[in-house]
Amino acid sequence: MNSKLFFGKVSHTRNQPMHHRFEYRTFMCYLDIDELGTIFNDSNYWSFNSKNLAWFNPKNYIGRDSNIRTAVYDHIYEQTGELFEGRICVLTHLTYFGYCFNPVSFYYCYNDDNELQFIVSEINNTPWDERHVYVTRADVKTDKAMIKDEFQKIFHVSPFLDMDFMYRWQFSQPDEQLIVNMDNFKNGEHWFNAYLELEATPITAESLNKALRSYPMITLKVSLAIYWQALKLKLKGAKFYDHPKTPSVRTTD
Q1: Separation of alpha carbons 182 and 149, rounded Å
Q2: Could you tell me which of 98, 126, 138, 250 has the fewest CB atoms within 10 Å of its CB?
Q3: 65: pLDDT confidence band, cut at 50, 70 and 90?
C-alpha cells in the first residue's frame, strides 16, 4: 500500500513589513489514486465517493469536470510539454462532517520505476474560490536533495501580499517525513514563509478513526484560521491589496 496518513504542523511566518507568525497542528491524507476504491474499506466512518463522516469526493479536486488522473496528466503536458502517464498520489484534506476546504493539494507523480518526476500543486484562494495549478519538476534539487522550484507569482492568494513576488518552493520526498517549504521574496528580501512538516503513519482502521477523533473538523479549522489570522494582520496595520483580476499565465481550473 502506498497510501498513508501524515501528522505534524504547519506554520506561516511574515517578516515584512511587520512580524506575524502562527503554527497549528494538523494531519493530511496521502492517497494513491489507484487505491481509492479500497483504502477505506476497513473503516465505517471513511469512504470514497459516498457521503460519510470523512469521505473523498473527487469533485473537490483537480479535474472536477473530468477525473484526477486525466487532469494531472493534462496540466503536466500543458506546462512542460512532456507526456506523463505514471502513478499519482495526492496529499490533501478530505470532506469532514460535510465540509471540505484545501488551501493547497499536492499531486506527487511517479514513473514506472517509482521515481518522483513531477509535483503538481493545486492552489485555492478564499473567498474568491479560484484554483490555480503549478507544475514542479522533481529532477531539480538543492544541495540537501530537496526538490526546488523558483518562479514569479502569478496567482492572487492573500489580500495582504501583492503580486510582485518571487516564489521559492522546496519539497522533500514523501517518505517517513514530508516537508514543503514555500518562501516569498521581493527585491531580494525574504517577506514570507509557509512551512509544512509531517510524519507518516500507516493507514489502518485504528489510525483513520484516531485522526477523525483528534481532528474532527480540520477543514473548518483551516478555513476559520485563515480569517482569524487575516483579522490579526488587519489589526496590525497590514496593507490590503484588492484582487488584481488579471488573467493567469499558467492554467487555472
Answers
A1: 10
A2: 98
A3: low
* Residue 226, pLDDT above cutoff 60: yes
pLDDT given at position 200: 98
> Percent of the chain beyond pLDDT 70?
96
- CA atoms of 127 and 129, how far apart (whole Å): 6
4 in Cβ contact with 201 (< 8 Å)? yes
- 42: alpha, beta or left? (left if phi > 0; alpha if psi -120 to 50): alpha
In the chain, the DSSP E strands lie at 4-14, 20-32, 46-48, 54-56, 87-92, 95-96, 104-110, 116-125, 130-137, 147-152, 166-171, 177-186, 189-202
The x, y and z cell numbers of residue 168, run together, are 521559492
SS3 221: helix
Determine the Cα angle at 96 with ends 133 and 116, to 5°.
Answer: 40
CB 76 within 8 A of CB 122: no
Residue 57 grid coordinates: 469526493
Going from N- to C-terminal start, the domains of the chain cover: 4-235
Q: Is the pTM of this model over 0.85?
A: yes
In this predicted model, what pLDDT tens digit does every residue of 189-204 receive, in sequence order? 999 999 999 999 999 9
pLDDT for 247: 44
In DSSP terms, which residues pair with 122 in a beta bridge?
105, 133
User: Where do we find the cell 483504502?
Assistant: 39
Q: Which of 48, 7, 58, 51 is nearest to 29 (CA)?
A: 7
Tell me the per-residue pLDDT of 106-138, one tens digit each, with 9 for 90 and over. 999 999 999 999 999 999 998 888 999 999 999
In angstroms, rounded to a whole number, what is the distance separating the alpha carbons of residues 13 and 141? 24
